[in-house]
Amino acid sequence: MAITTRPAAPAAPATASGPTAPPTPTTASTPSAASAASSGPAALRRTSPRIVLAAALLSFFVISLDGSVVNVALPAISHSLGGSMSGLQWVVDGYTLMFAALMLSAGALSDRIGANRAYAVGLGAFTLASGACGFAPSLGTLVGARMVQGAAAAIMVPTSLALIRQTYSDPGKRAKAIAIWTAAGAVAVAVGPVAGGALTDTLGWRSIFFLNLPVGVVGLTLLSRIPRSPRRAAPLDMVGQVSVVVALAGLTYAVIEGGRAGFGSSRIVGTLIVAAVALAVFLLAQSRREHPMVPLGLFRSRTVLVTTAAGFALNAVFYGVIFLFGLYFQQVRGESAVRAGAMFVPMCALIAVLNMVSVKLAGRYGPRVPMVIGQLIMGGGALLLLTVSADAPLAVPVLLLVPVGIGGGLAVPSLTAVLLESVEAEWAGTAAAVLNTCRQVGGCLAIAFFGALIADPTAFQHGLRTSLIISGAILTATAAATALLLPRSRPAKDA
Hints:
- By secondary structure, the protein is an all-alpha fold.
- It has 20 helices and no strands.
- The protein starts with 30 loop residues before the first helix and ends in a 10-residue tail after the last helix.
- The model is unreliable at 7-18 and 25-45 (pLDDT under 50).
């Protein structure tokens, strides 16, 4: 299947999202989903746009919140349910893993059964899974419920955007609604650590999941006022979907459990072999299908390769650093959950502002400039954190975390726009889904690998430093690749 690419264009505000933001809005825009959106029924367009937007924002906010709110609650969960470091890693990674793996085919599901039906299924499953998380009697039950949450979230993200696209027929109003939708996710992720800490300290860690129950009820009530969406014949690639889940789950399991069992153990080696076979099956299936879930021709483009690698690295470092320092503040420094969450506020506070700065820099100097600068700043910030000791004044790690947020805020909007502008319009949704899957996988594997490095409490500082060195190294490498391999594009004022 031939996929043509075109030179990258400057970044556009509609795609701006911070490093912690959930998938870029266009992840929902598979070719068939986009067509359905543009030809939605008149009844759907007559529905009050505010109702549709409110339903989409409400659930998208809690999805984004649940991606970060759990980090600072991990010590409390460990105290309540027991379990090893690997078990705590699965509480975070179980959600992210299913979110990433199922996102690739969620758009096709939305097309087949209709966006509102898919959204209702996702929201209902997410709400029930949240209740199961809150009542979980064991760590294993909690991890299982978190995986269901992640699977439901993967359905809800593209379908919530599909409803917005169907409702707002005017491009200008639709762009504004999408910007609000994106901002809601960015705000949720930014306040997640603080909200998680406050709820954990006052009401207990279970309250962070019970909070989703009334939100789910309100969301389903709003959804009942929205007419049914059109259906389209969209093929589901079950072989590709199952194989990619097995590959990602196997790799994540091997990295997490390898820190405890040893990476040379027969169990870990066997898991890696299973993951490799599943990946081979996935690639073979994609190469032979008439309508593949991930057209392999995309990866013939240097722009796609560079941007997906950079997206992987940015999320790996951002989520990895939050995971590491969430534990550092509580387990090493003895801070409460709410104080630990508050330590991340300066890191996240400037992301929305820097999104717009990134757009302006791209318009003046071209998108490579904010992409390279952002990756270097985040990587440099990770290396600066090497100076943080177990007894350093708390102001030191709090301030040194800020460059990590600044770098992502600068790099991600331009990175996303460059990717979307490098492919033909009909493949924009698929390319964005690939990018955002790579970003989620980056965060998932970083938590798995960094957690393995700090699994021994007596070697926490050594594992922390090793993780930070790796973070700085991979972002330096992707920044160099961006500068050297990304095709040049003209600033917007000269285009």
